[in-house]
What does this fold into?
Amino acid sequence: MANPKKTVKRHCWSNLFTHWSVAISTIVLFISGFGQMPMYARYGFTKIPGFSWSGNYKITLNLHYAAAIVLIFAVTYHLAVSLMRKEFSLLPRRGDLRESWQIIKAMLGFGKEPESDKYLAEQRIAYLYIAVNVMILLITGIIKVLKNTDFYQPGASFIFWVSNIHNAATFALLFGVFGHLVAFVFKDNRKLLPGIFTGHICCEYAKHRHSKWYCTLDVPETTDQLPAVQGEILTVGD
Ligand code: HEM
Ligand code: HEM
It folds into this structure.
């Protein structure tokens, strides 16, 4: 019988570090960016005890800058690590749109789910969507920072467009992050959640949902073999 405690390593610490530094800095950038719009003062949020700071432009701007530094560092780190390790499993492949549709249909009870690699086709598409919007925000954000200094004063219409693109990408990313989180409401995807906190996911789940990836791992067939495994690949969850 399948041992539900048998887990397989899905993410190394470097992946976890990248995910959480991007996720946390992005959330802070949303919160501080909306503060500059300035939404919180307009809708009375600043009147809630403990949240008066959210209407202070200087505080939200400094928060935005601090989170931007973390995001720029995390993105640079992610690009460097991916290139050095030649690790491109998150990049979309030909046929991913069709495959995503097949996966969605299978989740709704129509047809069989195609065999998946480490990431599902829809995860690869989500990655590209999020990455493109983050890059647009980084580039337009850096131009906006330069505009706030004495060194660079671009034309008003250029800054107008840069700001509009920064705002449009903000909403596009918000939509993407919302979709990313909603994906885990579905039972079929939920078993990936422990992986982004602990680095490990259920072995049986990996075997069935990510069979192509599972085949590449050196996983012993029986639990009895567990002690012989060299730490990294397989552990028993507590
Ligand atoms: C705040 C709560 C969040 C949770 C619980 C969460 C959860 C997860 C999980 C479980 C995975 C791994 C899926 C796997 O192992 O295959 C993942 C991957 C990923 N996350 Fe998050 N995430 C969060 C926030 C964010 C944010 C704010 C961003 C982006 C700005 C983000 C971007 C990504 C990307 C690009 C991936 C890889 C592609 C994918 O699996 O869709 N996440 N996240
Ligand atoms: C997830 C990434 C980001 C999001 C969601 C985001 C969101 C926002 C939002 C909503 C605003 C307010 C726009 C307005 O006042 O009309 C803003 C302003 C701004 N953002 Fe971002 N931003 C992000 C990343 C960045 C980055 C990486 C930088 C810098 C490198 C940056 C620099 C700025 C600057 C300088 C302003 C204008 C501040 C001012 O002069 O009033 N942003 N951002």
